[in-house]
Amino acid sequence: MKKTYKGSCHCGAVRYEADLDLSQGTFKCNCSICTKTRTWLATVPPNSFRFLAGSADLTEYQFNTKNIHHLFCKHCGVRSFGWGEGPEGKFYAIHVTCLDDVEIAELINSPITYVDGRHNNWQSSPIEIQHL
Hints:
Largest sheet: 5 strands, antiparallel
Number of strands: 10
Strand order of the largest sheet: 4-9-8-7-6
Structural class: mainly beta
Number of helices: 2
Distance between the termini: 26 Å
Order of helices and strands: EEEHEEEEEEHE
Shape: globular
Oligomer: single chain
Strand content: 35-45%
Helix content: under 10%
């Protein structure tokens, strides 16, 4: 069932709300940035995301194809969400570990799909996932 979560960076300067159904799954990617930051994401369409505060506190990082806008707080450095454009349009990528009001049990029970972003093979799981 979809639920509205509040999310933020560590210092609280960047805040948002997102409507998610964590039981529908999350994902982890093995691309270079996701591996280095141990990213755990859920995606939502634009109508399920509401930015509440901190636009002036965000800094953006892009690399490779520059399709994904990796956003982070310029004060505490935490990446609480980002956005990108996919075949079905714009989406927001929510870092589920930055949801302030998520129950640990919800994260434990959320299915995880592993994707091979390192090789631009988004429909397949990487050979090794233990480090993700």
